[in-house]
Amino acid sequence: MRKFFLIFLVATACAGTGCGDDGPGPAATECFDYSKFDGTTPEASFAGEVLPIFQRSCSFSSTCHGAEAGSAGFAYLGPTLSEQATQAQIDAIVAQNVGAASRAPSGMPRITAGDPANSFLMHKLDDTLSCGDLECAPDGCGDPMPFGGDLLPSAERDAIRRWIQQGAKVN
Fold first, then answer.
1. By residue range, what is the domain housing residue 147?
2. Is residue 64 part of a domain?
3. By the number of CB atoms within 10 A of the CB, which of 42, 89, 147, 148 ranks highest?
4. Three-class HEC string of 101-159
5. Total number of domains in the chain
6. Which residues contact 29 (CB under 8 A, 6 or more apart)?
7. Tens-of-pLDDT digits for all 171 residues of the chain?
């Protein structure tokens, strides 16, 4: 009985660790309708809108997206919210994400400047991992992000979506 309890305890602990890019996530309830999305206004600000969202929800530890050198193939999304990002850190965020291949074999870059529908990051944030032309969809594209938490509010996801639609500029 004790052995069973220990196995259960270890399995439960392991299920809650890591950053969730290895297994299939829950099925999306519906795909995002880009035909109804106007990403042209208002102007998106990376430093003022997008980076703080990344810092608060993605970069809270170096385990997932808070290490500049990357961690186990995870892209860098900025320092923790308590730190002011340097220009070198911002350049690292862009270099590791815009036009860069995703860790999962998704068939699309992490961020495709000007095209949020073909940005793997948006599928992760929207939990639409079974939508679109994702090559990894039959076998699993990982978990939605932020891992283990609720989806970001739609206004925050739309801010990131607008930033990508407007060219993923560093502004």
1. 42-165
2. yes
3. 147
4. ECCCCCCCECECCCCHHHCHHHHHHHCCCCCCCCCCCCCCCCCCCCCCCCCCCHHHHHH
5. 1
6. 127
7. 433 333 333 333 333 333 443 333 344 458 899 999 999 999 999 999 999 998 887 655 545 665 566 555 678 777 777 788 899 999 988 888 999 988 888 899 999 999 999 999 999 999 988 887 788 877 778 888 887 788 999 999 999 999 999 999 999
